[in-house]
Amino acid sequence: xxxxxxxxxxxxxxxxxxxxxxxxxxxxxxxxxxxxxxxxxxxxxxxxxxxxxxxxxxxxxxxxxxxxxxxxxxxxxxxxxxxxxxxxxxxxxxxxxxxxxxxxxxxxxxxxxxxxxxxxxxxxx
Length: 125
Ligand SMILES: [Zn+2]
What we know:
Blueprint: H1 4-22, E1 31-36, E2 39-43, E3 48-51, E4 55-57, E5 63-65, E6 70-75, E7 78-84, H2 90-93, E8 103-106, E9 111-116, H3 120-124
Antiparallel strand pairs: 1-2, 1-9, 3-6, 4-5, 6-7, 8-9
The structure holds zinc ion.
């Protein structure tokens, strides 16, 4: 017969291991980091369309003055640049990004879109 405490410990470690397995790879852990010039912030990671024509809202609802002629789309968690006014078009020619650490970089516009999977509490320092 198991003692009650044994059962509690086993259940606890089972839940802990499930959380540890799922969390680092779960979609909820992924964030979009937008780097513009010398500032960076997170933008909402949801399917749809967004552009950088004017002010861009971060995940906290704060406005950032970006004013870049770039458009992006997110489909099923994958991101790509739809349009950019840069000469070399490297950003537009970058295929869909979807994994941790993937990025779309537009050097002429000094813009980068990065899929960041680091934990927030580490980033805040
Ligand atoms: Zn570009």
